[in-house]
Amino acid sequence: MTLSINKLNALTVDVEDYFHVAAFEQQITPADWQHMTPRVDRNTRVLLDQFDRNNAKATFFFLGWVAERFPDLVKEVQRRGHEVASHGFSHTRVHQQTQAEFRDDVVKAKDILEQLTGEAVIGYRAPSFSINKQSEWAFEILKDIGHVYSSSTYPIKHDLYGVPDWPQQPYMRPEGIWEIPMPTLTMLGRQLPIAGGGYFRLMPYWLSSKLISKFLSEDRMPYMFYFHPWEVDPEQPRVEGAGQKSKFRHYVNLDKMEHKLDRLLTQFNWGSLGQVYQQTLKNL
Predict the structure, then answer these.
(1) Distance in angstroms (rounded) separating the CA atoms of residues 133 and 140
(2) Model pTM greater than 0.90?
(3) What are phi and psi of 191, to 5 degrees?
(4) In this predicted structure, which of 22-31, 106-115, 204-213 has the lowest mean pLDDT?
(5) Which of 148, 71, 63 is nearest to 108 (CA)?
């Protein structure tokens, strides 16, 4: 238990709004976004205050669409000492784009963020962890435009994403870019997802805490947690017409998330990906 408390772990936030999520892409198209009432600015600022109270730093993977509309939010995240990284511009899954479309998307997002921060944006996370065996070409493009690391893969079996036989530890890709996958825990011959998001909202806190502590006691690498600003917003509008599975995944325990986060932030130590992997990234 001493190891799990003292080790610096990576806290990450995918900065997107409730209407950007893949679960609702059949009900809400990108053309609809401009007509929606954004809640991401308010929700992200709630998180910033919560992180301040718990002395936690994080990496914020900004959707370029959000950064373009809320430039002061990007600057505030930077001002409070967090890392600004890219989530692409349009929240289109990588394997649904051509290579040219993907390049345009990530270049646009990176340029917006760098103009706002005045710093190089070295990190990237694909929407819905959507770099897979059909889109490995994305790593070469990310490296070519100046990203140092990606956190775009989840080595589990899932109906929306995941490549179970890809590495479970951070590794240098052949293209010359680091990939930092979401953490899993191998139990009974299966790789279990323990990285946060909907799984964290669904499970009782004691179980999440036990799984994270087990990961840290068995693994020499830090743990990484992720979630979205809309997950602390139980008052968000409900999307009509979505399937029961999608609605359950999105709305389950939203009212409990902020309190559970406080417990998580208190129990473990948290820093940005840049801080956690500082020596590794510096040696590139």
Answers:
(1) 13
(2) yes
(3) -90, 110
(4) 22-31
(5) 63
